[in-house]
Amino acid sequence: MLKIAFHPIYKHSLPEGHRFPMLKYELLPEQLVYEGTCTEANFFEPEIPDDSHILRVHTEAYYQDLNQLTLDKRAARKLGFPLSADLVKREIIIADGTMKASEFALKNGIAMNIAGGTHHAYSDHGEAFCLLNDQAIGARYLQHKKLAEKILIVDLDVHQGNGTAEIFANDPSVFTFSMHGKGNYPFKKEVSDLDIALENDADDATYLKLLYETLPKLIKTERPDFIYYLCGVDVVASDKLGRLGLSLEGCKERDRFVLQSCKDAKIPVMCSMGGGYSPDIKIILEAHANTFRVAQDLFS
């Protein structure tokens, strides 16, 4: 059964002024149940994990500053959200959702987190709405538990996974692949193991051709035993923070190809939702819902 991490704090802890497009965290589970893609049995509620799992990725000083709300003003401004105890708790629970979903993926082939994809969180600071790097924490969790050795992170959000690249720099046990908009944030990119930067308005054909050529070779060469997939839908043409030109169908085909590639290679995959900022909430929901629909079609 497809298992999906979801906790009420995903939708209730965001400050006023940041509710849209964060409404997706409230509406997406409802949509998936309403249309019959999922039932309540598909969802599980993450908790507060042991701090040791987070400290395998983030420095003790940074994590302490988050928990005690003692970040200096400059570091706090980089977060994008006003720093609060509820916000920190939310990110900690999201990380637990990704860790637990990783174990479900080992059992079922795939698992998902309604939130997550916080790839701008570095080991020692956060930025751009990302406080803790959930997929990095998940990767280290699996390695610590000896549930996986070689991990591939496939980051297809429109923004480069700069924090993820920094965390795993010079670490051959985790291969970081980021395919993103060249003109998008972050404007000073880090160096992933493989970066593909696309020009503005890259369409379905351009994007998918590169993905078709790249991902199978990566899987064959790197031979991971676990894959994290960051499936941000801010690649669609209508996204107000993205600069690419994919259609909803192109975005869905992207998801289908990634998940089919994982299934064909018999490699478990854990998906974090990442970004989506189209002005019309219906487009955000449809794009994200497509990821879950594809997952159910392929793995049920």
UniProtKB/TrEMBL annotation:
Example GO molecular function: hydrolase activity
Pfam families given in the database record: Hist_deacetyl (PF00850)
KW Hydrolase (keyword) present: yes
Top-rank taxon: Bacteria
InterPro entries from the UniProt entry: HDAC_classIV, HDACs, His_deacetylse_dom, His_deacetylse_dom_sf, Ureohydrolase_dom_sf
Keywords: Hydrolase
Domain Histone deacetylase: residue ranges: 24-280
Gene Ontology terms describing biological process: epigenetic regulation of gene expression
Family the UniProt entry places it in: Belongs to the histone deacetylase family.
Descriptive protein name: Histone deacetylase
Biological source species: Subsaximicrobium wynnwilliamsii
